[in-house]
Amino acid sequence: MPQLEQFSTFPSQIFWLAISFTALFVIMWRVAVPKISDTLEARQNRIDDNLERAAEIKREAEAAIIVYEQSLAEARTEASTIISNATAAMAETAASREAELNDQLNAQIAKSEVTIAAAISAAEDSIRTIATAVSQEATKRLIGESPSDNDAVTAVDSVIKAKS
Amino acid sequence: MAAGQSPLAQFEIKTLVPMYPAGIDVSFTNSSTFMVLTVITVSAFLLLGMRKSQLVPGRWQSMVELSYVFIANLVRDTVGPDGRPYFPFIFTIFMFVLFGNMWGMIPYSFTFTSHIVVTFAMALVIFFGVTLIAIMRHKLHFFSFFMPPGVPMYMAPLLIPIEIISYLSRPISLSVRLFANMLAGHTLLKVFAGFVISLGIVAGWLPLAFIVALTGLEIVIAFLQAFVFAILTCLYLNDALHLH
Description:
The complex is a heterodimer of chains A (164) and B (244). Helix content of chain A is 91%, strand content 0%. With 164 residues, chain A is mainly α. Chain A has a domain of 107 residues. The longest helix of chain A has 134 residues. Chain A starts with 9 loop residues before the first helix and ends with a helix. Chain B has one domain. Chain B has a two-stranded antiparallel sheet with strand order 1-2. The chains are: A mainly alpha (164), B mainly alpha (244). The interface between A and B is large, with 37 and 49 residues.
């Protein structure tokens, strides 16, 4: 086995091992490891930054949603106020119009009643006049004597009173 | 079998550029070649993959980051936040062993982790480093590590030697595990490759199919052993930092 026979090569193997291993270690220590770790760190920082920014944007979005919902609620309240105001105003208008109309109608009714009463009394007067005349004429034909106007009127009135 | 065709011939160290400063043999060999290649490929993999260092990584950059995060999680899970300063070392260990093992999977290449002297040297550095960290951090209190808490006093004469032996055998088990896995896997591949030739075109397909399957298994082992080496380093480091 050359490993345990070529003892004379041991110094050379150890020498070159020391040189090459030391060289690799220095390259690693001074150049490669710092470079790789810097890159990894930069990436980690970038990822953390981005996550942080995403969280910030999310917070902003949530704040905007709150503001939006607030203004929406305000708008709703305002709209319902306007609607109730309008309803109240319309109801008032309707009530006043109705009252006006009622007044007008009542006035007309009253006027009509007066007219009707006048017509009734006029009709009663003409009926009395005619009845008086008829009764005078009828009495004259029956007894040949015409009662005085006053008597006739009194008689007719008493009959009308009794009938009505 | 001829000398060059032994299944173990692949582990032979071949001098490419002889160097003898002050009489010591530090020649540049096939082993050294693959160590240098490993350093170059690991550095290229990491640095070229990160050259743009994009916020949204491409495929290559993703692989680089994956390997980084894989070992970073390993250190965090086994050692905790105290392990952060040692992360570059653990990452270097892992990538060095992983790429060394992977280079060895290429036919006609050389696997430097299949040499006990290499793995043992790495294990010893880890062992002494970890022990030094423990002593610097806990001073004399470190030696309470060999006496687990809650154990009755009369057990101490038995337990303390066992704990010390198990502590001292750590570098051996750490190095032999990696070395033996690489040695066995590559030897097995070579043995079956020999069967393909000796059985010829008629029956040679069977060992060939086996080699294909075994190569897949060896790639998994190459990764697994690198991971095991790194995780054990982390566990030893954790013991050093937190004792029990």
